[in-house]
Design goal:
Radius of gyration: 22 Å
CATH architecture: Clam
Mean pLDDT: 78
Largest sheet: 13 strands, mixed
Number of helices: 7
Distance between the termini: 11 Å
Oligomer: single chain
Strand content: 25-35%
Order of helices and strands: HHEEEEEHHEHHEEEEEEEH
CATH topology: outer membrane lipoprotein receptor (LolB), chain A
CATH class: Mainly Beta
Length: about 280
């Protein structure tokens, strides 16, 4: 399964991308010597319409409430303290490469449990993933096997599995590498140790992301890439979306379901094939 191991490498790359995307410039977001944000003009009768939404509810001016730095730092702390989270990562530039992950969606917790799906670019297939304790279930679809295994081997493996999961424990090298993506604790430790660039963030006016009121924080990295962090308007302030865009880069990451349990259901034995059996068969094909 040498070619199949690309999935594991791809998953690790995707996980690594999450940290700089989620947390750029948040510690600190603004250098101590940076000038304070400009204050909003005095509210006069002509200015009132700009402070009211179309539905009559008041807007939150950018200069009101916590600063961009304070919002970003609290969002970072809450992400590092989360017991579980649901995340979705999309790399829009990977859509043309069938061996590269184009999107990853996971619900994961600090105990290493997770449920999710990885989608490869250019119709390279997808992989469903379930991990509970040290037990791992991984279900690549037919398109994935065809993209990863040369010649007729992809069709052979897909026919053998019949849309069932590969099952084993974290003692298996392939499953251990893949399930490493499920470790929220490791992600948080790496994020906490990450040295963030001193990207100045600018606070925008309140808006919504999937119905949640958020404050956008925008900035430009030294590389020239533009980042936007969307942090909940109401406390506790949490990161719900982050984007990074620039030459060769178009990434999007969302966080929801903070501290909600990971679904505990696992595939039934009839839906699974022991990965060691498949590995033995592949050695003789």
């Amino acid at each position: 399964m040498a070619r199949g191991s690309r999935l594991c490498a791809g998953a690790s790359i995707t996980a690594a991308l999450l940290i700089p995307l989620a947390l750029p410039g948040t510690a600190p977001a603004v250098p101590p010597t940076a000038p304070a944000p400009a204050t909003a003009p005095a509210v006069t009768a002509p200015a009132l319409p700009a402070l009211v939404r179309s539905d009559g509810t008041p807007k939150i001016p950018a200069a009101d409430g916590p600063s961009a730095r304070a919002l970003a730092e609290e969002a970072r702390r809450n992400l590092l303290r989360a017991r579980s989270v649901h995340l979705k990562f999309t790399d829009h530039r990977a859509s043309a490469d069938r061996t590269a992950p184009a999107s990853l969606e996971l619900t994961l917790d600090r105990s290493g449990n997770c449920v999710g799906k990885l989608v490869m670019g250019a119709d390279g297939g997808s992989v469903a993933l379930v991990k509970r304790g040290d037990q791992v279930w991984m279900k690549p679809d037919t398109a994935f096997w065809k993209a990863q295994l040369p010649g007729s081997r992809g069709d052979t493996v897909a026919a053998r599995l019949k849309n069932r999961y590969l099952h084993g424990s974290t003692k298996d090298t392939v499953l251990r590498a893949m399930s490493g993506t499920c470790d929220l604790t490791a992600f948080q430790k790496e994020a906490a140790a990450e040295s963030s660039p001193h990207t100045t963030l600018t606070k925008g006016e309140e808006t919504k992301v999937d119905g949640t009121k958020v404050i956008p924080l925008t900035g430009t990295e030294h590389s020239g890439k533009k980042i936007t962090l969307y942090v909940t308007s109401a406390g506790p302030h949490r990161l719900v979306r982050a984007t990074r865009q620039g030459p060769g880069t178009d990434q999007d990451l969302t966080f929801t379901g903070y501290d909600e349990p990971v679904p505990s259901a696992t595939p039934a034995p009839a839906q699974s094939v022991d990965i060691s059996e498949l590995q033995r068969e592949l050695e003789h094909t």
